Amino acid sequence: MSLLKVTSMTHKFGGLLAVSEYNLTIEPGQIVGLIGPNGAGKTTVFNLITGIYRPTAGRIEFNGQDVIGLAPNRIASLGLARTFQEMRLWRHMTVLEHVKMACYAKISYGLAGAFLQTPKRRRQEQEIEERAFASLKMFGVDQFASQLPVDLPYGAARRVEMARAAVTEPKLLFLDEPTVGMTPEEMMAMIEIIRDMHNKLKTAIFLIEHRLRVVTELCQRVQTLVFGQVIAEGNPEEIQNNPEVIKAYLGEEKVVA
Ligand SMILES: Nc1ncnc2c1ncn2[C@@H]1O[C@H](COP(=O)(O)OP(=O)(O)OP(=O)(O)O)[C@@H](O)[C@H]1O
Ligand SMILES: [Mg+2]
């Protein structure tokens, strides 16, 4: 059974056909990439699968379960975590608190535990703190634990977002342009971080990127989306040599180099 199976997913924003007859299969542990020009519908695909929008038509099965109509937090609790294209970190919460918050969403103390400092609750607190630190460490940002995200360098803040998404050890992790706005050095460091995380957690990853280098380094399979339609799918080499893909990216060489 595939981890994620999307069949004939279509979405319209009013008269705009943003995603058309979209299909996707992700197996456990696989890294799949989604590339395409600005406005192609990539983030909309993420938003549809993670429950932010409800598709106009189609089927989405995650881990064998139909997830259309489930709230985003419900889908997340089934083991599908994500990061956003624009960072979503709170101004007044420390880095460590951000990552701990993601853990709280996964556990319940029970009514008594929520109000009383029971030994069980203290033990859980301790475990959560340790897990949060371990996740920050995996992304190389544990030294910022007590700082506010606004005080961090950009690349570090993006890693905190990923640490928050990965701390619950999701079965599938969606990353929306993890290297956007980064220098080539930061991009290479991010590729290594994602690779290390994948080696450690074996999490399946679905990755949106503008930069071909990132998908060729990381992905086993890549889809190219143009005007809401998949125009090519294959391994990174096939995608790079596909005339349709080259055409879609013409004039964008500087972006994808
Ligand atoms: N909430 C919305 N309401 C109406 N139109 C939308 C909405 N969200 C996205 N769109 C439109 O749908 C199309 C696809 O947008 P989307 O953000 O999915 O593209 P993208 O491939 O992620 O682009 P980028 O590379 O710039 O992030 C665009 O034409 C966009 O303007
Ligand atoms: Mg986008």
Task: Explain the overall architecture.
There is one protein chain. By secondary structure, the chain is α/β, with parallel strands linked by helices. It folds into 2 domains: 4-79 and 170-256, P-loop containing nucleotide triphosphate hydrolases (Rossmann fold, 3-Layer(aba) Sandwich); 89-161, no CATH class. It is built from 11 helices and 10 strands. Strands 6-7-8-3-9-10 form a 6-stranded mixed β-sheet, with helices on both faces. Strands 2-1-4-5 form a 4-stranded antiparallel β-sheet, with helices on one face. The radius of gyration is 19 Å and the shape is globular. The chain binds adenosine-5'-triphosphate and magnesium ion.
List the helices and strands and how they pair.
Layout: E1 4-13, E2 16-26, E3 31-35, H1 42-49, E4 57-62, E5 65-66, H2 72-77, E6 80-82, H3 95-104, H4 110-115, H5 119-138, H6 154-166, E7 172-176, H7 184-201, E8 204-208, H8 212-218, E9 221-226, E10 229-234, H9 236-240, H10 243-249, H11 253-256
Helix pairs in contact: 3-5, 3-6, 5-6
Q: Could you list some keywords that capture this structure?
A:
257 residues, alpha/beta, Rossmann fold, 2 domains, 6-stranded mixed beta sheet, 4-stranded antiparallel beta sheet, 11 helices, 23% strand, binds adenosine-5'-triphosphate, binds magnesium ion
